[in-house]
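forwarding from the other thread:

> can someone predict this with uracil?

sure thing
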Amino acid sequence: MTDSRALRQFLKMMTASGISHLPTVTLPKPAAAPGRQLANRLKGTDPAPRQAPVNKSGSRTRLMSPDRLAPSSAKQPEIMETTHALLKQTFHTAEQKAEGLSTLAEAVTACRRCTELADTRRQTVFGVGNADAEIMFIGEAPGADEDRQGEPFVGAAGILMDKIIAACGLKREEIYICNILRCRPPGNRNPHPQEAANCREFLEGQIRIVAPKFIICWGTVAAQNLLRETRPVGRLRGQFLQHGDAKVMCTYHPSYLLRNESAKKLVWEDMKFFMKKLGVDLG
Ligand code: URA
């Protein structure tokens, strides 16, 4: 589907759900963003073909408590050695970053720190997109589609996320997308704090290598885990928070929007707020 078609469909869908203040102006092209020109930095290939939409279970927006540290015996020291050696390096060019990510992804495939997840996953779902992205998206954990395809946000939530991306005049390929967890929790249950702690090293590795200027946390689980927060996303949205060098904006998870039409309006407000920071006025 072309971006303009996706955008038209998104706007139609938003209008049908009662949102009357959508932009009537032509959306700015990514090149209008400040700094490195977003559109010219595309390095990725087209995302994998989409599968039929599936809904996630209602439990995914449940709150979770902050991380606890994993017991060192569960940490698989050989993986830690790999990631620590990797993270002593510096990553300047897109090629160096892509290579660093691929080494880290390889280490993740061997990870068995969370026994239940390692036993039930089809594959690890590391991350996808532009290794040199200015914008990183962080979700919660792979669902069934992601577990099958090995790529984050390819199910129903991903399809909605793609529409949001297009409505902002962005392209999925210029963003780097990953999750708090790299394995699917059985039945799409919320990640346990221990699992998030076990996976933290990989998330921090991805952030360190990509070095995004901006991070969007999608949903309470992503926001609370990344920021070590206890407030729900409804309290964290509407502001920029800081994680390392990156400015972090939190908004509702696309799966939540699939169940709560009325929250689409709030996400659109958040995206306008976010794009404004990039110098793009969506009205
Ligand atoms: N939900 C998430 O949080 N992440 C995915 O990758 C897919 C759905």
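The CA atoms of residues 117 and 185 lie 6 Å apart. thats all i got for now
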